[in-house]
Design brief:
N-acetyldiaminopimelate deacetylase activity; Alpha-Beta Plaits; 34% helix; metal-binding; elongated; binds ligand L5K734KM; Peptidase_M20; Peptidase_M20_dimer; 8-stranded mixed sheet
Length: 382
């Protein structure tokens, strides 16, 4: 690992940071990664694209298994407010969830093993559309992935709340079940001065948001965490026109599938009540649904013990988080685990000012290189 210079991966992260793209539209991102891969010795390298994603296999010298590693690729519809000189060039889009860091780390690990092959095969998965509508499930089911399906798989996610040098994870559930939520309400628009001739969806939508929040407090076991967040409301057209249409956009998070089912059935009932009470038409769209990230007990404990005993990094056994990650779909078919990587920054994930500490790139690459060498039973130790 000491033979790998980190600077090129910091530069790659900065390059990728400037071109955040929506899910399944990561064209420049894919091209940037493919161009970089083309600079590496190709002898042990096999590359396939899948939509805007990429699969990279590094052939081992005496493979008895294939170890998988996943990074996500897409950006978020956020107007960047960082102090960076390498801010996003895509107006209204930003890498605010660390996928630029994740890709740079994946490329660092991959580069190391191109130059220092180990016994086992390695598969690097560059997954598009993690933020939505979800690339993991269709990629997992694709013939390209199934042909190269690894025997185990792991991934990391940056964690603003931990110092650089911290690795946090737990066996079992790490991330929640999620469902997106889109509700449209259709009433009748009209003149602001003649409310009796219209049917105001601003009032119906306001009532609906408040009623939705009662589900968590009144219908869900308080010991079984759940969240309903309405992140966006779009109502009406002008201040003196009664709104004939409203759209609510949100997300549901639960730690159990029972709670997810219960919440959805309560939302249906409440929306039906709004239709009756406000004499309007409503439609519900559940959007993309992600299953929980359920870390394999044995593999995760082995990784945690290894970090504790073999590295200088701080291992934290953390609690479950209500964030979502479609990496959970890979873990439904392939044993593996995910962990948080500390990037210490005062702003959280999805914040326009988030500036992850780039020192974490070295920690992420170093940890995975050493652990993959340990897993294959061959490697050098730092
Ligand atoms: C780590 C992280 O922030 N993941 C996202 C996943 C998005 C899931 C989906 N689009 C939704 O909004 O439900 C998160 O928001 O947790």
């Amino acid at each position: 690992m000491s033979s790998l210079a980190i600077e090129p991966f910091i530069q790659l992260r900065r390059e990728l940071h400037q071109i955040p793209e929506p899910g399944f539209a990561e064209y420049k991102t894919q091209q940037t990664i493919l161009s970089y891969l083309a600079t590496l010795p190709s002898k042990r390298l096999q590359i396939q694209t899948w939509k805007t994603g990429i699969l990279v296999k590094i052939l081992g010298s005496r493979p008895s298994k294939c170890i998988g590693y996943r990074t996500d690729m897409d950006g978020l519809p956020i107007q960047e407010e960082t102090t960076y000189s390498f801010r996003s060039k895509h107006e209204g889009y930003m890498h605010a969830c660390g996928h630029d860091m994740h890709m740079a780390i994946a490329l660092g690990i991959l580069t190391y093993f191109v130059h220092h092959p180990i016994a086992d095969d390695l598969l690097f998965v560059f997954e598009p559309a993690e933020e939505g509508p979800g690339g993991a499930l269709p990629m997992l089911k694709s013939k390209e992935f199934q042909a190269w399906k690894p025997d185990m798989i792991c991934a990391l996610h940056i964690a603003p709340e931990y110092p650089v040098g911290t690795i946090a994870t737990r066996p079992g559930i790490l991330f929640a079940n999620t469902s997106e939520l889109f509700i449209d309400l259709a009433g009748i628009s009209g003149h602001a001065a003649r409310p009796h001739l219209a049917n105001d969806m601003a009032i119906a939508a306001s009532e609906l948001v408040l009623q939705l929040q009662s589900i968590i407090s009144r219908n869900i076991d308080p010991l079984d965490s759940a969240i309903i967040t309405i992140g966006k409301m779009d109502v009406g057209t002008k201040q003196n026109i009664i709104a004939g249409h409203a759209r609510l956009e949100g997300t549901i998070r639960t730690l159990s599938l029972d709670s997810m089912d219960r919440i959805k059935s309560r939302i249906k009932a409440i929306v039906h009540g709004i239709e009756q009470g406000f004499d309007c038409q409503a439609t519900i769209d559940w959007g993309a649904n992600y299953c929980q990230v359920d870390n394999d007990e044995k593999l995760t404990l082995d990784f945690m013990n290894w970090v504790r005993s073999q590295t200088e990094y701080q291992l934290v056994e953390c609690r479950e988080a209500m964030t979502g990650e479609d990496f959970g779909y890979f873990l439904q078919e392939i044993p593996g685990w995910m962990f948080w990587l500390g990037v210490e920054t005062p702003y959280g994930l999805h914040h326009p000012k988030i500036e992850p500490n780039e020192g974490a790139i070295q920690v992420g690459i170093d940890t995975m290189v050493r652990y993959m060498e340990y897993l294959t039973g061959a490697g050098t130790r730092l």
